Structures
1.
Amino acid sequence: MVKEVKTTCPYCGVGCGVIATVEGDGTVAVKGDPEHPANFGRLCSKGSALAETIGLDGRVLFPEVLGQRTGWDVALDLVARKFSDAIAEHGPDSVAFYVSGQLLTEDYYVANKLMKGFIGSANIDTNSRLCMSSSVAGHRRAFGADTVPGVYEDLELADVVILTGSNLAWCHPVLYQRIAAAKTARPAMRIVVIDPRRTMTCDIADLHLAIRPDGDVALFMGLLGHLAVSPTIDRDYIDAHTQGFPEAFAKASALSFTEIMERTGLPAMQLRKFFRLFETNEKVVTCYSQGVNQSSSGTDKVNAIINCHLATGRIGRLGMGPFSLTGQPNAMGGREVGGLANMLAAHMAIENPEDRDRVQRFWASPTMAEKAGLKAVDMFKAVADGRIKALWIMATNPVVSMPDADAVEAAIKACPFVVVSDILRDTDTARHAHVLLPSLGWGEKDGTVTNSERRISRQRGFLAFPGEARADWWQMAEVGRRMGFSGFDYASPAEIFAEHAVLSAFENSGSRDFDIGAYAHIDDAGYRTLAPFQWPQPAATGSCVTRFFAEGGFYTPDRKARFIPIEASSADRTSENYPLTLNTGRIRDHWHTMTRTGKSPRLSSHIAEPFAEIHPRDAMDLGIRGAGLVELESPHGKVIVRALVTERQALGSVFVPMHWNDQFAAKARVDALVAPVTDPHSGQPASKNVAIALRPFEAA
Ligand code: SF4
C-alpha cells in the first residue's frame, strides 16, 4: 500500500513543504508540496535528497550508559538523579540544556518549561544563538518584540531586493529561486548583493558590493545619512510612529563619505549607485542572514538596516521592509516558546516580573528563573570552569559547531555528567556522553516548525520508530516526572502544542503580537490535519495578520518604534601574526555538521571535501598552489584543508565551509579557529571575521 504524507523539510529556515511517499516495500520518495505557501512545489538539492538520508546507518537505537546498552528506565532515572543531585548540592544554575533549531516547537516548549519553570534556572540555550540571535536582539530593540514584519511574497513584489550577508542561492535556495523567477518575469527588478565574496547569489545581482568584513554598519549608517536629506524621508511616519530619529541621524551624519568608503572598502561610484537605488525605489526589501548576524556588531547591523526602513516608512507594506532570514528549520519556533537563555515563553520577557508571574501561574510551577541564563558561548565557558555539573545536549554537535571548538570539546570531556540526545551514536559530541539517548529523526518525529515568515507547518512522521528511539519531548517530560515535577503528563505532541497555544493567549500575553489562541482546543485529529498557517491567529478573531507596522503599532510601551543610534566601530582584527580574515559559512549541498547530508553520495559529489578559498594574489604571495594542502592557524587552533584559488574571494580574506568534522576529514573543524568573541547585545559569535595565518602545509 502506498502512503503519502505532507511534511516539512528539516533543513533551512525557508520551511518548504514536502510530500513523502512510502511504497509498500518501504521505499521513500520525496517531492515538493505544490500547495505549501513557502515553496509551491519547489525543492532544492538538499530537500530533494531527503530520502537518501533516512537509513539506519550509524543510528543510536537504544539508551546507553557509558557506552553500554541499557533500558529507558535505567537511563532516565540516572539522568533525573544526577540533575537533582547537582541542583541539591550546587543550586539550579549548576545544570544546563544546550538544544537546537532542529528541535520541533513541542520539544523546545517542554525543555524550556522544565528548565525555567521547574528547575528554576534559565540555563537553556540553543545553537540558534549561532544563527539569528542578533536579529532577535535587533527586533526587540527597534520593535519592542521579536517580530518579522514581512512575508516571502514581499521578495517577489519588491522593485529592489537587497541581500546583505546572505548567500541565498546556496543557503536559502528556494527563496533564491522565487526571487530569480520574479526577476525573469519583471526584468526591471533590481537585486543588490552585499557580500565580501562573489557568491553564486551574484549571478542574479545587478550590483555586487564586495564590502569589507563587518562594513555593513557603516554602509547603512551612510545610507541613513543620505536618505535623511533626500525627499525620500518620510517625516509623517517618523513623527507618528517612531522615537529617536534625531539621535540616530546625528550619529549617521557624523560619518563622512570618505569614512564610509574606508570602512566599507567600496568605491564612491558603487556607494552612490546603492544609495540612489534605495532612494528612488519605494518597494525595497532588505534581507539579512548570517553575514549580518554572526558578528560582534551583529545587532547594530540589524538596527542600522531597520533604521533605514523606519526613516522611509517602508515597513510592513507590500514589497517592502527589513527581512531577517533564519538559518535553521525551527529557529523561529524556538523563539516563540522562549527556548533561549534570555527569553521566557510566548514572547514574554524573563526580566519582566509580571510576565514571570503570569507564566508561573499558568504552569503552576514551584519556582521560576528570575534572570537570563547563560548564552551558548558563556554556557560552555561555565562547563569548562566547572560551574556546570550536569549538561544535556540535544540534536546538535557543539564539538564541531561552537567557536573555539577544541576548548568546547575539552570542556565537555571534563564535565562530570553529560547527556546527549541524538539520532547518531558516533558524532564528535555523542562520543563524550555519559548517557546517550536515542532520538527520532526526520520522517519519524511529529510536531511543528516555524519558518522565517512566521509560518507554522507540521513535520509528520511516516516511518516506524527505529529500535527504542523516542521523541525528545518525551525524554524531557519523563525526566521532569522522575525529578518529582507535575505538569509533564503529555500523551502526544498535540497536547503540548495546545498548551503552548493557550499560554500564548493567557491573560493577554499575546498582546506582544504572538497569539495562536485559535488553536488552543486543537485535538489529535485537528493536529494531524493542521495546514500551514502564520501567526498571530488569536482566538478572538481567528484571522492572521500578515504584515506588521505599516501603521505603527509597535510593541514598545508607547507603541512607537525606536531608532537606534549606532557607533561605527572598527572591524579589522588582523595583526602581524594573523594577517588574513577568515569567513566561515555553508555550501550548497551540505547541512551543518553533515550528520545527515553526509549520508548522500549525490550531495557529497557537489563538493567532495573541505577547502580554503583564497584570492590568486594571496596564493602567489604565500606560495600556495591550487588544490595544494594549506594550514590555517588562529590563536585557538589549526585546520588543514585544500586550497581553492579563485578571484571570487576578496584579497586578504579566506573562506572555509563549516560542515566538515573529524568523521569526514582530518583537522577540518573550522570552528576550532573561531575566537569566542560575541556581540554584546545578542551573545552571537563573530564567525565571519576571524584573524588567521595561512601557509602551505608541509607533512612532517
Ligand atoms: Fe529544505 Fe531549505 Fe531547500 Fe527548502 S530551501 S528544500 S527548506 S533546504
Note: The chain has a mean pLDDT of 94.
2.
Amino acid sequence: MLCRSNEELIEFVKEAREAAKHGKVAEYIPALAKADPHSLSIAIFYPDGTCVSAGDIEKKITLQSISKVVSLALVLMDREEKEVFSRVGMEPTGDPFHSIAKLETMSPAKPLNPMINAGALVVTHLLKGNGVEGRLQSLLSFTREMADNSQVDFSEEVALSEYQSSFLNRALAYFLKQHRVIQEDVEELIDLYTKQCAIEMNCLELARIGMVFAMNGLDPVSGKQIMPPKVARICKTFMVTCGMYNASGEFAIKVGIPAKSGVSGGIMGAVPGVCGIGIFGPALNEKGNSAAGIKLLELLAKAYRLSMF
Ligand code: GLN
C-alpha cells in the first residue's frame, strides 16, 4: 500500500509537526539559524513520475550533509572503488558527524566512513574537474540531472556563512593533510565543500534524487541510467549504516529505509524500488536529525510498511 493522496499526507504532517516543539534549529552555521522551526514539508516521488506532497514544498533548502551521498556517487563513478576506499572507510562511528576523536586513534589516519565530515572532506577532495569551479560544476550537473532541474544551484549566502565559520572542518582537513590523506590547499577544499553543502532545492527535487537512488541509479521517467546500480547500492548501504549520524541504528529499527539527513533539517529517503522521499523540518533533535522529519517517517513507515527489514 502506498500513500497516493496529498490529504493523507497532510494528516501525517499535522501529527508529526508536534515533534518539532522538542527540536532546535542549527545555529553553528549562522545563515541556517534563520529557518522557521515550525515548518514541515514532504514530497514523495514515485517511479511513474507521479508525486504527493504536503507543506510548503516550493521552499528551497540547502542539502548540507545530504550532499555527501551525491558527491560520493559521483566520485565512485569517476574513480576506482579501490582508490576511494583506500582513503575512506566503510564503518559507522557511533560519534557525532563532526567528531575528530577517532581520526587520531586510527592508523593510518583514515576517516571511518564518507558520511561523517572527515570522510566527506576526503570524498570532496576526490571530485574530479578543473579547480574548485570545475569540480563544483561537475557536481552541480550531476545533481541537476537527478533532480531534473537545470536551475539547481548553491546558495552563496549559506556557503559563505559556513565558509566563515568552518573552524572544526578546517581542523579536520588540516589533520588529514598532515597525514597525507588529502593533498590540496585546505582553504580551497573548504571553499568547495561549503559550496557543495549549500546546494539548494525544494522537497520535490530532493525526493526525485531519492527516487533515482531507490531505482538503483535509473531515472525511470527519462529512462536514463544516471549511475551504475553498484554505485547506488553502495550509497544506499551507507545511508542505512551511517546516514542518520549516530542515530542510524535506532532509525533502521524504527523506520528501516536508506536515508540521509542534513543540519538544515532535510532528509532524503530512498525506499528501494518504491519511491524517493524529500523532507524539510529545520528543528533538530539532540542527534542533529530533523525532529519532526523523523517522526513523520516513523508514521509513514508504520502506515505503509516501508521498512525493508
Ligand atoms: N555543512 C555541514 C558541516 O559540515 C554539514 C553537516 C551536516 O549536515 N550534518 O558542518
Note: The mean pLDDT is 95.
